[in-house]
Amino acid sequence: MDDAPLFGRYSRTCLGAGETVRSIAEALQISHSCVTKWKNLRRDAGGLSPGKIGGHKKRVLSDANADWLRKRIRSGPFTLRKLTQELAARGIKTDVRAVWTFVHTEGLSFKKNDSSHRTRPSRRRP
Questions:
Q1: Over the stretch 28-40, which tens digit does the pLDDT of each residue have?
Q2: Would you list the DSSP string of 98-112?
Q3: Dihedral (CA of 9, 11, 16, 20) sign
Q4: How far apart are CA 86 and CA 88, in angstroms?
C-alpha cells in the first residue's frame, strides 16, 4: 500500500470526481468535516498543497529601498554595518543579515583576499 497520507493520495481523484462529501468520507473512513475542509481549501486556494509555515513576508529591502541601496553600493566602498546604519537613518528598520542577503543575491560583494589581489604568496607547502 502507498505510504502517502490520505490527503495527497485521494484528494485529486475523489474531490474532482463529483462525488458527495459523505460518500468520500465513508470510502476513506474519515469524518465528513475533513472532506469538507479539503473541498473548501481546494476552492479557496486553488490546490491542496500546504502553505508556508509562518506566512509570506515581503522583504524590507525591496522596491524603492532596494533601488536606493543599489545606488549607494555602487557609489563607493561600504561595509554591511555602515549600510545598516545608513538605512536606519533613512527610517528603514533592518539588520546586518538582511543587508548581507541582499548584497549577495544582487552579486554586489567581493572577497578582499582573492588570490589575484593577495599581497603575499599563499602558505601552501609541499
A1: 888 989 888 888 8
A2: HHHHHHHHTT----T
A3: positive
A4: 5
